[in-house]
Structures are given as C-alpha cells and as structure tokens.
Amino acid sequence: MSTESEYIRIEDGVLEITLSTAARGTSLDFTGVTAGTAALAAAGKDVGAVLLTGSGPNFCAGGDVRGFAAVEDRSAHLYQLADTLHVFVRALEAAPIPVVAAVHGWAAGAGMSLVCAADIAVGGPGTRLRPAYPGVGLSPDGGMSWTLPRLVGFAKAREIMLTDTALDAAEAHRLGILARLTDSDDAVQDAARDLARTLARGPRASYTSIRTLLSSSATATLSEQLDAERDAMGKAAGSPTGREGVDAFLAKRAPDYSGLS
Which Gene Ontology molecular-function terms are recorded (predicted)? Predict the structure, then answer.
C-alpha cells in the first residue's frame, strides 16, 4: 500500500519527505517541513525508515533569501522559520527509525544542516555542500553548529563554517558528511531510496537502540555508555527481534523481521 502527496509519500516501509521543489527554486519549502513533522508524528509500524529528498535539481539550496527580504520584520520572520525547522529536526532525532538523505546537486544553508542531521547521506559526483550563512550575514540554524563538529571535528567545522567553504562530493565523503557516493548523479535518488527500503525491512528495534546509544554517547562517560549498552543488549536479547535474529543465525536462514518491533 502507498500514499502520496506533493511532499509526503509512504511506500515499501519508507516515509519520503520532499524538502524542496523546483517551483520554489529548490529553497527550503516550509510546507514540506511542516508536512514532514506531522508525518513523523503520525508514522505507525508500517514505516521503518525516513528518506529526505528534493524534487528539483538540488537537494535544498537553503533558505528563501528573497522571501526574507520581502517581509517587514525580518527578525521575527527568521525566528519563526528557524523555530519551525527545529521542530522538524527534533522530530528526526526522536524518530526510532533510520534517516537517509538523497543529496543530489546543492545542499546549502539549512539544506546542509539537514544532510548533517541524517543518519546516512548519499551523494553523487555533482553533489555540493556549503554552509552559506556568512554569505548573507546570518548565523546557522537546523543544528549545523551541533552536528557538523561531531561529523568532521571542531577545528574543521570552524574552518568550514567561518570561511563558508564549498565542499565537493569527494571532500564531503572524505570528511564523513556523505556516507556513500554513487557513480552518477542520476543514481543518487534510486540508491538512497533502495537503501531506505533495505533499512525498513531490517531489525527496527536494533536500529532504535543503535540511534539511542549513539545519541547518548555525545555526553556520556565511557562507564555510563557501557551500562547503557549492557541494558540495551539485555533488553534486545529477550525481544521478538532479538530472538528472531539469533534463531535465524542458528538455523542458517535469513531473518524475517517483518511485523517485529
């Protein structure tokens, strides 16, 4: 079963959220952001992965700067947009399932922030990333000042953000911002969608534990993290997912995680 709208599509266990469209010049489309937040909140057991994408020539070229300039109170306007975006980023972080980004063309400003917010970002030869905030005299949003240092290290993040460095696909992959590169730009969307579908068929309870443990590791001591891993392992061993995984391994068959949590 599949359901579709301009911004939200659910198919093969994947919740696909379109964040930019050609009609809006591939700037961040807040109709898509708001729809994505609602879809994440409403997602049921039929959803096992999230795919972030854009429907135009770019993943997301950043904020609508012309729109910023057209409003009377720019401070209030940008505050509200950032707040709306951050509700979405928090929803992605809280989701118990993996988040994949299909990064074709440019990911600039908030677009780059959303790439950094994904668990796995897939790009192609023509993928480009840029903070873009200094270019318009603004400061980062979308969590970039938190996620980018954790991906590339604090010193490199400072350099990239302060100098507004444009990263090509090879450098973004070397730094770990892009986890995978395809051989052609035309293959990015399909490769990311195939990955999301594969994850959606996988052990969802395991993915939830992995994401939770990775998130807590940012502030936990090693001893605290070891305790958290022990507790998660014990819980997993008695869960339907854990039992199916172990039983399948012993039976030398592929595990079937469908319908398990």
Answer: isomerase activity
